Amino acid sequence: MDAKLQVPTLDSPLPVLEPIKGVKKAPLEEYFTSGHRTCQGCESALVMKLMVKAAGPRTVVLGSTGCMYVANTTYYSTSWVVPWMHTQLGSSGSAAVGTAAGYRALMRKGKIKREPINVISFCGDGGGADMGLSAISGALQHMDYNHLILLYDNESYANTDIQASGSTPYGANTTFSPHGKAKRILHKRWKKNMAAMLAAGHPECRYVGTVCASYAVDFMNRIRKALSIGGPTFIHSLDPCPKGWDYDPMLSHELGELAVLAGIWPLFEVEQHQLRLYGKTRAIVEGRQKRLPVRDYLMKQGRFAHFTNDDIDYFQAKIDEMWTRWLIPGVLPFSTDVLNERPPA
Amino acid sequence: MARTISVEVVYRGIFQKTLAKNICRGIVLAARKEGKIGISFGRYGDSPERNGIPAKNFAIVAPNEEELQLSMAQYEPETTDVTISVDDMLCKGVESWAWYGLQPINQKVRDQGTLIVTSMLPAEALINFCHTKPTPYRLAVIPAIPSFSGLWVYKDDHTDVRILGALPKVCPELVSLDSIQKAIKEEWNDDLKVTSARRTYEHTATRTVRPGEGNPEVPFKFDLPGWTKMREGVTIDGIRLGEPIKFGDQIGGYRPARNPYFKKYTTRTMRPVIDFDKCIKCTLCWLQCPDSCFDVTPDQTYDLNAEACCGCGVCEAVCPVDNCVTMVNEAEFADNKSQWEAYKQDKQAYQAWVDEKLTHRPERSHGFRYRGQYQEQVAKQGVGPGGAE
Amino acid sequence: MDPDSATAVRVAAAEQEALISGSEAVAVATRLADVDVLTAYPIRPYDTLMQYVAKQIANGEQDAEYIVAESEHSQFEIAKHAEAVGARAMCGSSGVGWCYAFEAIAVTPALRLPLVAMVGNRALDDPGAFGTEHNDALAARDLGWMHVWVDTAQEALDTTLMAYRVAEDRRVFLPCAISTDGAFLTHSQTLVKIPPQTWVDEFLPPYNRGDLRLHPDNPITIAPQVNEDWLMEIRRQTDEAMRNARGVIEEAYRDFRRIFGRGEGNPFFEEYRTEDAEVVLVGMGTLSMPVKVVIRKLREQGEKVGFVRVRWFRPFDHERLGALLSRFRAIGVIDRDFSMGSPFNSGVLANEIRATLYAQDRRPPVVSFIAGLGGREVTIPAVKEMIEQTRRAAAAGKAPADTQWIGVRA
After folding, report:
1. According to the model, what pLDDT value does residue A340 have?
2. A12: distance to nearest CA of chain C, Å?
3. Pick the CATH number of C269-405 from 3.30.465.10, 3.40.50.920, 3.40.50.1260, 3.90.480.20
4. What ipTM was assigned to the predicted interfaces of this complex?
5. How far is B233 from chain C (nearest CA, A)?
6. CA geometry: angle C361, C364, C370, nearest 5 deg
């Protein structure tokens, strides 16, 4: 398609953010620093750090309720160097629009200096994939406002003590879906396919991507792309959670890699309406990298410790389906016989 | 018993949540056998718990309901008769994620009260970590590798019942061994657990810690400002930018400014030791650290800033070089000094220091790694040294 | 020649007259106030405000970010965050729409964001009803929002300018809700004086958020999570701001009169024929219209009756209102709202008046009425009946214990 036809009029100034060429070129400055109160090995804290490291000093961050609110900013202290403001659980989309709209009006009217200001609004999977979905959808339609909505997905309402969300994987133990004597599995919903849903549902949106902080440079460069491309953008990050997933915090980085290598977390981006798989996901699709069995990923986590072999096989079948039957493998879950698959009784 | 007795369990968030709950429930249920009434609760401000961040659970036992009411609308008791530290590294101090200032582990222990610690270290070593107290208290060490598990899978190594067994010994007023055994039998229906409790009762001894004994340092305190001093709009200043590091005539690298109110000294059970000669400057320990606890040195190597490290071990996991970044038991460190500066001052002495430290890798398991792991560990090391004692 | 009539001449010369509704008057005020960000979401009767704003935007008469949100909640959150970066914002809602935004409404005061919102007062569904009732706005009465009730389109326009001036004063920095009765005020067009821009510019300084502004040049953290060690102090700060608002409102009205040559002497409540009154009715909003008509008629017959219209409900001027009301022999309070199971089964206003009088040495009987719910007209006979009952209470020296429902079918 002709991308130029899709380009809206972008009158707010855009930042120039060059791609980071390798780990050794990563900026030294920290804009989200030490002294937050997250768990040992918290991958989402790393996501916050890399997010603003990539964005730089002329950035404003809005944070909706969740771990990255409560654990990072406990009143009278903060870990943020750049300006930060709390927003409500379902408001990451609205907060981004309101902040960007405020700057746009003030700049146009000459009430403040006209300059690029990165507006990043983050939400967890509870705030983003559940409660805030409508507001995010609304935000991705307002092309006049430059901002990035980042969903850090630790696959549960982790801050309130690990309750099931629309983004919790099938069968996982949560405090709202415990493994019990009568019911081995209480959480039977399949994880929402957020990034593809938003990319497919918002044709004007110029950047939607998935990331994993285990690949720090890829991660930061996607943030830079989203912030400099113009208009509203969305990035979905899978964040291993040592508390809710129940694993040794030392393994956060490894579990991120395993999610990608097992094909459970496809890395892709839709940039100006062009879909591109990248990183290890691309390597798997091009046959340069073997897709690992999901067992290698699931069995490292206490939240799946109750799984039987049937459960693991079912999980594997659903993932295989992603790569063999989906209209766009790993991205768009349309095919004729998806529904024939049923969980084990 | 004519008075209310308060027991406090200080533990590692999530890793020891079930353990702490088991102990406090056990106390209240055992006391019930003697017609006493009690409550068991976690400190609300510690919830939601964070992996490894200190948290507290309490058991309060009273002769009757009226007495108990005194304790029923409190977040935590003023003083405790017994404080139980289920991780010996908490003897260095306690700071919850939700409040400010470092609480000495023995802060709430009353005059002549008891501090129970599960540890493989001798009492003297533990006392050196504990802050000094103006009043004497007693220390009981239960020999055990601090028991860690996670949110969903519990490591059942009898630590809970062994501590329950020690209680009637150090605080007969609280509850008798007989009631403890009855309660364990009812709650777990496991004779081996009952035996573990009795054996621990028999073996437990206390040592009096005199005023002035222990760590003399005055812990960080924080005074809360009033509403006329606080900024409107629930607004506070952000953290300023960091700066390059100056060392001798060297200037370079980067040290981020850090949250001055919350340091992670008490959050870790281990910390990385860096062998700077092995470092290939790949940046991964620094880049992948969720706590930004590495300073970039003027040599472009990465120095641990111990005030910020919560001991997760990701740096060791991502380091591509063997024994370059190695997690070492926190018990082996008396201070939080810069490793890089020590290295710069005397490379040979530093190498010797590193080699010695690397012989103290932590025995703790920081949570789930694979199914059946805990059963294997318990089978290997038994339930407490020497199996069911 | 007294200065007032002098300015009156100046006014006549400079102000233009337009035939617009109360909602449209608020829309015009947002243009005059150079509001930066406006958010819209449809619900009757509030939508009439944003429909007019949309026209002004479309015709190039107003320069602002005009955002059609996907819910009332988003509408308020967008406006809230625009305020945080130093942009002047306006939004609003009606009935259950206001309730849908309630989370955002609840968090705004502690953040000290001077958002101004219009409430097109509407009954709360179910059953779906478009008519006016004050329970929507009153649901937020205790949260730290300033609340003002207007009864004409002119007052709606003037009060909107006043609201920004007060809310954006650093001593206050609180949000303000302007209540306009659905249908009677939002949908009927009357002749409104539209002041020249120069007067508005003189009256309303730019919104300066100062050191609370969210901007890369001012690296702050806003609204970290707090535990029990902090929240009481934060509540006390909001309480202090609301106390300050009383004085700031007085200043604003004084300045308004100086610059515009019109407006109220007493911002907080309007007195109508109270000078020598023995009994008075008290109420809020457009029910003032039929009440005033009846009062005039009865006055012609020599009856000493009056009316007090409460304008600023938060902050509430308990001192002056209490001193005034204690003069009368009996007071009838009309609530266009309900507070089921409250003391004496009254509406909200009646019990606020009772509380206000409690501090007075002289406490006249208070007759509490509920009338005009769901937009039902408050008729001339209804008003007469309320005055009659109040007069009886004056004669008896005591009021009926229970609340009187007026114009309800048994």
Report:
1. 62
2. 12
3. 3.40.50.920
4. 0.95
5. 4
6. 135
